Amino acid sequence: MCGIVGLFLKDKALEPQLGALLTDMLITMTDRGPDSAGIAIYGDETASESKLTVQSETPDADFAGLAEALQAELGGAVTLERRDTHAVLTVPAGQADNARSVLRQIAPTVRSMSFGDTLEIYKEVGLPKDVAARFEVSAMTGTHGIGHTRMATESAVTTLGAHPFNTGSDQCLVHNGSLSNHNSLRRKLQREGIHIETQNDSEVAAAYLTWKMQNGASLGEALEQSLDDLDGFFNFVVGTKDGFGVVRDPIACKPAVMAETDQYVAFGSEYRALVNLPGIEDARVWEPEPATVYFWSHTDTNSLNKKVA
Questions:
Q1: What is the pTM for the complete model shown?
Q2: What are phi and psi of 174, to 5 degrees?
Q3: Mean pLDDT rounded to a whole number for the chain
Q4: Backbone dihedral angles phi then psi of residue 17, each to the nearest 5 degrees
Q5: Cα separations (Å) of 94 from 90, 107, 169, 222?
Q6: Where in the chain is the domain with CATH 3.30.70.100?
Q7: Of 11, 56, 108, 116, which is most buried by a Cβ count within 10 Å?
Q8: Is residue 2 annotated as a catalytic residue, yes or no?
Q9: Which class does domain 3-42+138-308 fall in?
């Protein structure tokens, strides 16, 4: 049993409140997942920079001189902004994935949490309220974000095992459920060159979507194909640079509820995660249908794309 939250903002006036709204939603889901928690925030894009969010168990030692060492390898300006056990490294545009590879060589105890142009992921072991406070999530701004509270069933309680999982540029996934074919699929994806860090079944789902999109599928198509290729029970909420997508397995035994107003679209494992959102009393509230893909995008003039598998 885990808790998922997501918030996609249509109204730019709410962007300064994104972190605070998501923090409240996340803490409300504590009893669904007290082991660890994480949150993905999509912020502003800078044309000349990409970024890499990293984590260390010994940040004082590992972050000292890290930006300078990475800059020497990449040959372009690198900066580091620390947040507790995490840090955001800014690198030259388009160099985030390369920076991940370099870091594995020069700083093997530093772990990559996310990479891309707008995405930052913060996650740690502990209660959601404590994790959110450590990283001052409530002060963060952005266009959309997703979060997760974990009750571990498939793998150990670790920082790397916490959600969200990032396996592609500006792409991340949170999951409530359990996959039965993740071991065989992990081996297949690794043969295809997809990097997978953990034994968590949810990271395999994220990696599967990355693989599909690298081979030409849109996010909607990849989510639709997941209904045939992934065995088990799942609610997925997937973040991208443009927005987020939602899909439930055909049985849909895991709880989910959505709400939409002129200001936002919200997802929660339970309705109580949404009750403090502004204007929720006037929202259209519904339970997403089984085997159905939903996607909202800031760049698509059609707010809602819906496909039935």
A1: 0.94
A2: -120, 150
A3: 93
A4: -100, 0
A5: 11, 20, 10, 24
A6: 46-117
A7: 116
A8: yes
A9: alpha beta
Catalytic-role residue among 2, 9, 89, 99? 2
Q: Are 148 and 162 in contact (CB under 8 A)?
A: yes
Give the single-character DSSP code of 216.
T
Taking every pair of Cα atoms in the chain, the longest distance, rounded to a whole number of angstroms, is 54
pLDDT tens for 254-289 read 999 999 999 999 999 999 999 999 999 999 999 999
Its sign, for the CA torsion 285, 177, 134, 199, is negative
Question: What are the pLDDT digits (tens) for 12-48?
Answer: 999 999 999 999 999 999 999 999 999 999 998 888 9
Token digits for 213?
A: 């999109």
Strand pairing of 49-55 and 79-83?
unpaired
Which string of DSSP letters, residue by residue, matches 47-85?
Answer: TTEEEEEEE-SSHHHHHTTHHHHHHHHHSS--EEEEETT
